[in-house]
Amino acid sequence: MNRDRIEGGFRNLRGRGKTALGALAGRPRPQIEGAIDQAAGALRHEYGRAREHSEALYRDGEHLYRETRERGEALIGEARERGRHIRHEAGKRGRHYRHEAEARGRALVQRADDNRGTTLLLVAAAAFGLGLIVRGRR
Predict the structure, then answer these.
(1) Domain count, the chain
(2) Structural domain for 32, as ranges
(3) pTM for the complete prediction?
């Protein structure tokens, strides 16, 4: 409860008292003043309620902002960590494939060196076939 609600409530009660006393005394002026105080007190009380509500909304908004910011920072950190992990895994796989290709290439060179005649015949046949394809029809 804030000061506006308290003071508005007291002014409303004071206005009711004035209105009642004016009615008992038969005097219209205190009755009118009491009615004005009642209305002003009710308005101030409602203003206090609205202010409390707006302050609560403001606090909730700040809380949501902080929570959203914290979650966003956590997601950024998680994304960075996943990116590092993916980069590390890609590097491992790349090294593995490079080593595998080098080993297969060495094995192919060794096999070609062991079978020189067959290799020469296959290279010549491939070159002849490629020449026919490139030359085209006339």
Answers:
(1) 1
(2) 3-135
(3) 0.54
For 112-132, what is each residue's pLDDT tens digit? 999 999 999 999 999 999 988
Burial per residue of 51-66, b for 16 or more beta-carbon CB atoms within 10 angstroms, e otherwise: eeeeeeeeeeeeeeee
7 burial level (CB within 10 Å; 0-12, 13-18, 19+): middle
Intra-chain end-to-end CA distance of the chain, in Å? 101
Q: How far is residue 30 from each of residues 8, 12, 35, 36, 41, measured CA to CA in Å?
A: 19, 14, 8, 10, 16
Tokens found for residue 115: 């079978």
